[in-house]
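REQUEST
  id: r-88c1
  op: predict_structure
  target: Kelch-like protein diablo
  payload:
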Amino acid sequence: MLSRYSVSSLRCESSMSASPPGPEDGAKQPGTFPRSSNEGGSSSSSSSNNNNRNKPPGGPQQYGGGATPKPIEMQQAELSETEDTSYMYFRQEGLYANSFPKMKEIRRMGKLCDVTLKVDSHSFSAHRIVLASTIPYFYAMFTHNMAESRIKEITMKEIEPLALEALINFAYSGVVKIDTQNVQSLMVGASFLQLNEVRDACAKFLKRKFHPQNVLGIRQFADTLSCSKLIVSADRYIHQHFSKVASGDEFLALSCDELIEVIGRDELNVKSEECIFAACMRWVKHAQDKRAVHLPLILSNIRLPLLSPQFLADSVATEELIKTSHKCRDLLDEARDFHLMPERRALVATARTRPRCFDFVVGLIFAVGGLTKNGESVSTVEIYNPTTKEWSMGEAMTMLRSRVGVAVTNGKLYAFGGFNGTERLSTVEIYDPRQHRWSQGTAMHCKRSAVGVAALEDYVYVCGGYDGVTSLSTVERYCPKTDSWSTVAPMMKYRSAGGVAALGGYVYALGGHDGLSIFDTVERYDPFTDTWTKVRSMTNRRCRLGVATLGNKLYACGGYDGNSFLRSVEVYDPVKDTWTLIAPMNVKRSRVALASNMGKLWAIGGYDGESNLSTVEVYDPKTSTWTFVAPMKHHGGGVGCGVIPTPFQD
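RESPONSE
  id: r-88c1
  status: 200
  body:
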């Protein structure tokens, strides 16, 4: 960039000319820049014309006699030299940026305007060239020989006056104010004028305003504009916060078709199907005379077989609207049979028996306890934010805990048992993210490290582990509401360092060891019958593995098979009762934690046979690939892991 030039410097360095030509020399000289034809004359002009051309405005000035030429002040500009010295490019920075404010000022003064846009009783003058250059709708109108390209006054019927005025001003300034008062009319206008960037900005603004009381209305508004991004975001919010959305007035205003479309989604995030049933009965009873006729169709889209036998008996069978409908009673009988004949469930599998699965939780990943690089137990907590892709320190637990069991339910994180470096623990700690502190819960009946934990509906199941003497088969069930423990049926095998996860209303226990053998076996617990049943075994033996659920399937990764540390990963389909190997992790990981978040799997820490790991990698089921993300800063592996959902993000 150059800001000053003297006249004598405007020549190329060349051995062809030992001295610069005099200002009176009108002939083209070797090594000088040629004058273009619009510079006031040709190069063969007389000497007097050349002298006049060299005179600055405001009076004569002589350059002869070896006098130093007066420097010419230049605007910030850029000269691009080329290999061909017969020409150059000149670019003035800011020319375009400065032009639009000037055009805006010209429009404000009402000068040079050649078109008027009318909406109702409002008129807005503008320049065709500006509108055509900045708004795709007007570009098509003014450049394609349409009638409007020739008339001075154009009537606009599809846009509100204030929105049109704001978008015309945007055409001149590139800035538009979006607020709660104008966002809808502005988005309609931007969509009509094909201002996609403004439309998307309005959609982004509406996303920030999502609330259980308005998200259904925003979703319907987005649908009328075919704004797919906003529709997807609204649906995710509805899925994540269905219970709160269903308690609002907008939910009651849904049509029957709209209600069925919503409740038919697999992705609804509910503790149990009871939430769906209660929401639908509320909708029906809001206008019972008109809506009761739709109840059989609505019930056929509720997954009644997934309701508990007690709820079916106490709440469904006693409902008068159901008792008086033959079709509704048939659906109730189907649900009862599902519970009475569990051995036939696979034969009667339908959409009504398929568990819901909400995968797209946007949550903070908590890495709890674990080990240092030297293998010492820690109380440290690290938190990974998938939005910022960074780890930060969290509030430490009150006790050292490695091989700790972790679960999240009702927005709180629970740490069960573990090993403090000296003894196995039965104690429980509870983290409340709203208060950013840990509190003590009621201790378990048994000491347990290397324990498997899973949250299912209103309970947390703590399975197996090691008490310092032997591997355990016992299972305890924790009730967060009452902070109390009860004992349920033990597992079929003693399992220490196994994997445990909840899927489809069952608790699955995978792999592990009993002190003598490492298992590939899998069993699942049915809380309705209080029984464990064996299902298809994994393809590999694994202890110290990571287990998580995603997309109605169960994933098992890494671990140790007695000979090798593993990086293989396999997935279980409960409908087909089959295990399938998928893409392996990038590194071997035993004592690995696996978490499901944002529709992906996160493998955190572990041990590769040589050292404890702080690395983290993420599996994307859409691409079947593992990718490294930021490693933990203060852990060396062996962590417990849980995901606490955050306020809605997209």
